Amino acid sequence: MKPFVLLATRAEDVPADEEYELFLRFTGLDERNLRRIRLEAGPLPSLDLDALSGIFVGGGPFNASDPIETKSPVQRRVESEFADLLGLVVPADFPFLGACYGIGTVGAHLGATIDRRFGEPISVVDVELSPAGAADPLLKGMPERFTAFVGHKEAIASLPPRATLLASSAGCPVQMFRVGSNVYATQFHPELDLDGIRTRIHAYAGYGYFAADELDPTLAAVRREPVTHTGTILRNFVERYAR
């Protein structure tokens, strides 16, 4: 089988390593078949799409909507590399699934408006599939309403051109979309479990996702309701595109 690649941007080793373990678990892949590239650690190497089955993008602390002068040199480099990569992926309709930060990269590439109107605090939200989502093969086996972990300061304000809406939540109208037949992005985290989001809450406590005195309420918010279905999306992606 040709390998999949996980493009990661987390500089903190504990949540970065746990993110990789979660992707391995929910995709069912092993380390030989899911290569991790930590973009915050160095430039993106050249990727031969013909030698890959597909690309995943994990989450991270970067915000596409931040003013350019506030972005670190690393963030500016990573954004430039994603722009170049998506310039190949989108025209080729190559299998791609970007989670959280990944939806910002695809949205920015397509010219979507990304701002802070539809940010969601770290929590569990109810997500509802659109009619197109209910019919999409990547969402096979998903209920029309399901719970998911979220936590993002910015979001896509409206569906980008050429994209198909697949899922929404009450607080965020674009939770998942598809471009073409094979390029996907989610605002929620399909890879997370309860332990994983607890790790991130502690790791990013000083990053502005919640106030200093809101740690305990934030930990309680992610226990509001079990999240049991979202990993299906990652398994479906592998089953559909492994070659």
TrEMBL record:
Keywords: Glutamine amidotransferase, Transferase
Protein's UniProt keywords contain Ribonucleoprotein: no
GO molecular function, one term: transferase activity
Record-annotated Glutamine amidotransferase domain positions: 50-194
Pfam families: GATase
Alphabetical list of InterPro entries matching this protein: ChyE-like (IPR044992), Class_I_gatase-like (IPR029062), GATASE (IPR017926)
Protein name: Glutamine amidotransferase
Record-linked CDD domains: GATase1_1 (cd01741)
Gene Ontology cellular component terms for the protein in this record: cytosol
Domain of life assignment: Bacteria
